[in-house]
Amino acid sequence: MHSSRSHIILDRLGSVIAVLISIALFAAPFATYRANRIVAGEGRMLTEALPTAGALGVTAVILCVALCAVLARAPVIRLAAAAAGLGAVFPALGWSAGFLTPAGNTFARVSPALGFWLLTLALALLAADALTRLRLGPLARLAALAVAAGAIAGLLLSGAWNDLSLLKEYANRADSFWREARQHLWLALGSMAAACLVGLPLGILAHRFRALRAAVLQVLSIVQTVPSIALFGILIAPLGYLAAHVPLAAALGIRGIGAAPAFIALFLYSLLPVVGNTVTGLSQVPPAVTDAARGMGLSRRQRLLEVELPLALPVILAGVRIVLVQNLGLATVAALIGGGGFGTFVFQGIGQTAIDLVLLGAVPTVALSFAAAVILDAMIDLAKGPSHDRD
């Protein structure tokens, strides 16, 4: 007679998350204290960065989250645990800044350290895993993104992080921050829009004419292999010559350095994904569909606009997604040639060895790239229609 035994099955990803949490809590500093913005910092463990009661409370919450990650299978429980963990860790970072900074000291700086970043990574992995298991539709994913953005905005507006070095850097550069944010978005979104205006018709022509397709894709592939900083440099000479000899170009703001070469370089980088995905999307339209449309009496133009392009739209949007995420990152490098954007803070911070100034440019860039990926992924799923089966 066999006795039934209940076995506890540990979640594999949850076990990795629990290990990350253990390292973050017990082996890595939670915050870094510096006497001023450029000197080397001293790491502070969670128990040193917060009052005793606060440190114990945060530790207890995070350990419960680790337990849920290892044992819980229900996606809703895992998502709630991740949210509770983030709800404890993020305010705790701002609390640590106020606790570690001496009263009246305006020079001291407190920054997130390895322990905070590991906790954020572990909790983000847990949240992403829960959302994946929930198999959310595109609109639900957009709603989840909006909730996350609202929570971060509420944290920043509450003033809970005002004593952090990152927010102090922002406070000293608030006007220039939003100016560079507009410039960064203009470079990324403007070059993407220009690439779509040129790339879509070019992709349609390349699909229609095989000889043109090979030549266009080969040239654009060569452009894609040129390193970004090299392409920026290559454009300086011809644009400088154009500005010097064509008054209209100079009047439009075209110069050898600045936003013009950055915009043109990003535009050139954007063409291959747009043209290539347009060709691929149109090539994947079933011949039976186009034959049926032809049999219904639709003209070639009508077949393109009413049948082929709508069916190819998900693939085309996948190319646009690649372009936008790529351009948001590459626009950072534009600051090296005076193009502006968030890269201005990144390179200023590197020059001053001020890591929080680097983060002031890097964090918004990463956040924008992540949001753009989520939004366009949702748009791709919506374009595929309700019959699309999400695996």
Automatic annotation (TrEMBL):
Transmembrane regions listed in the UniProt entry: 12-33, 53-72, 79-100, 106-127, 139-161, 185-207, 219-242, 248-272, 304-324, 330-350, 357-380
Presence of keyword Transport: yes
Bilayer topology term: Multi-pass membrane protein
GO terms classed as biological process: glycine betaine transport; transmembrane transport
Stored Pfam families: BPD_transp_1 (PF00528)
UniProt keyword annotations, A-Z: Membrane, Transmembrane, Transmembrane helix, Transport
ABC transmembrane type-1 domain boundaries: 181-376
Superkingdom, natural source: Bacteria
InterPro entries (UniProt xref): ABC_transp_perm/SBD (IPR051204), MetI-like (IPR000515), MetI-like_sf (IPR035906)
Protein's cellular compartments: Cell membrane
GO cellular component entries: plasma membrane
Entry similarity comment: Belongs to the binding-protein-dependent transport system permease family.
Protein name: ABC transporter permease
